[in-house]
Amino acid sequence: MKRYISMFLMIIIGFLLQTTLFPHLKLTNIMPNLLVILTAAGGFMYGRKFGMFSGFICGLLLDLIYGDIVGICIFIYVLIGYGNGMLNKLYFKDDLTIPLLAIALSDLMHGFLYYICNFMMRGRLSIFSYVIKVMIPEMIYTIVLGILIYKFMHWLEEKMYPEEEVPLSKEEKGIR
User: Fold this and answer.
1) Distance CA 3, CA 104 (A)
2) Fewest CB atoms within 10 A around its CB: which of 98, 111, 115, 166?
3) 74-93 burial, b if ≥16 CB within 10 A, otherwise e?
4) d(CA 22, CA 100)
5) Nearest to 134 by CA among 147, 119, 123, 148
6) Quick one: how far is CA 153 from the chain centroid?
7) What is the pTM of this model?
8) Using CA atoms, how far apart are residues 106 and 42, in angstroms rounded to an integer?
C-alpha cells in the first residue's frame, strides 16, 4: 500500500512539474515526459498491476486537464505500464541498461500511439516528420531525465523497504 501511495504522490509531483516548470525548460521546443518515465519505471520495478495503476493515474490526469476525449491518454499509459510490467522479470537493482531501454521504447510507443490517436485520425499523415522532429528528441531528453528519476525511485525503494538479514542456520554457522 505504501508503494501505491508513494507512486501516487510522485505522479502528482511529476504532473505538476511537467505542466508548470518543464514548459520553460524546453530544448528545441521539446520537453521530457515525466509521466512516461514514472509509468515505465513503476511497471518495470513492481509488475503489471502496478504499472497499470500508475499508467491509469497518469493518463487520467492528462485526459482530465488537456484531453478532448477522456480515455485516449489512459489507454496509452495503461499499455505502457502493462508492457513494462511484463518486463519485471528482467529487473535487477544494479542494472540501468534494460530500464533505460524500456523507458526509451515506452516514450517512442507513447509518441507513436499519440500520433495515431491525435494526428493520423485527423488526416495528418506526415509521420516521418513527426518522428524526426518530435519523437526522437523527446526520447533522448526523457532518457537523460529518466536516469535521475529511476535512481531516485531506487533510493526510495531502499529507504521504504530495507533488505532484512536472514539469520544463518546452525549448519551455516559451523555449530554441530
Assistant:
1) 24
2) 166
3) bebbbbbbbbbbebeeebee
4) 21
5) 119
6) 11
7) 0.86
8) 12
Query: pLDDT tens digits, residue range 28-82?
Result: 888 999 999 999 999 998 999 999 999 999 999 999 998 888 889 999 999 999 9
Say which amino acid occupies 91. Answer: Y
Look at residue 172 in the predicted model and tell me its pLDDT. 59
Q: At what angle do helices 34-46 and 48-66 cross, to 10 degrees?
A: 160
Q: Rounded distance, CA 110 to CA 161, Å?
A: 31
Find the helix packing angle between 34-46 and 2-16, rounded to 10°: 160
Q: Is 39 within 8 Å of 84 (Cβ atoms)? A: yes
What is the rounded CA–CA span in Å between residue 106 and residue 11? 17
